Amino acid sequence: MPQNPFSDLTLTRRSLFRAGAATAVALGSGALLAGTAAAAEELPASPYFDITALSSDLFRSKMLHESHHVMQGFAFDNVNRRLFIVQAQNGTSGDDLCISQLSFSGELLGSMHLNHSGHGVSLGVEPVGTASYIWMECDADGTTTESRGTALARFKFVNGGTPAVKKFLTGSKNITCATDPVYQRMVVRRDEGGRMWFSLFPLAKAVAGDFSEPLAHFPQPSLSPGGVVFQGYTILGSSLYILDGAGHADAADIDSYVTRVDMKTGEVKERAITRAGESLVWREPEGMAVYRTADGETRLFLGFGSRSSVDNVNRYANLFYKNVLVG
């Protein structure tokens, strides 16, 4: 396990909040405080995934709506039992995204476009009755594959429809989010002063546009070993999970890692290489999500992009999961 990146700092949850107390910035429909003296409620410790456990397949080599672009972030509607995956649109400059709805066997069920939105590293889903509301970045800061969102969009998924978007935290830099379907929370990741930070909120408050009292707020920790190409994240309870690594044609070059972070302190608790789907052609880690089955099994999902051959233009989605909880 790597050295704790915060070992030289005596960081408690409250000291993490105090660290940026003077830098509160009003953004769009809510105020996200870069540091506050205390949170509205405590963040209790919760069970966490054993990230060293073996991974199981959900599906492999499934094509999304856009055939020529790799999958990015994905998320589940845990109430209506739906899966959504985001990727870039075919034939565009790179910042126009497509959300595909898939069955749990990987069958394409529908799609929706959100133009000029960013890269799609991560997204969240909010069930509202029988509807699924997507949370993802929007208002990209450019028109290429390097562009990133400057606000969060919330809209109802309607197959083939045009999103009716409500925007939050406008004026941000490199902002994305992920949702916790078990504890009903949202984590926001964005650039604050040149460094990426995570902020945790009750989902109900985020829906109301209230980002003033995060349950946790901490900088993205340093990650090593590995190439540390950031590829996705998700949350369950008091833990944040990060997926990083590059794409490789040879399984011997695999450098993809899963990291568990305690959101109460911002400390890295565990980091382990993952070889899920190591036989895939040009396997590249892409996205994370949490799902709880109808039978009550909680799963940590890892996404990987692949190709049928190194030179083939088509890209495929692959999902794997870990289901061993500790505590």
From TrEMBL:
<keyword id="KW-0732">Signal</keyword>
<dbReference type="InterPro" id="IPR006311">
    <property type="entry name" value="TAT_signal"/>
</dbReference>
<dbReference type="InterPro" id="IPR048799">
    <property type="entry name" value="P68_RBP_TagC-like_beta-prop"/>
</dbReference>
<protein>
    <submittedName>
        <fullName>Teichoic acid biosynthesis protein C</fullName>
    </submittedName>
</protein>
<feature type="signal peptide">
    <location>
        <begin position="1"/>
        <end position="34"/>
    </location>
</feature>
<feature type="domain" description="P68 RBP/TagC-like beta-propeller">
    <location>
        <begin position="70"/>
        <end position="319"/>
    </location>
</feature>
<dbReference type="Pfam" id="PF21311">
    <property type="entry name" value="Phage_RBD_prop"/>
</dbReference>
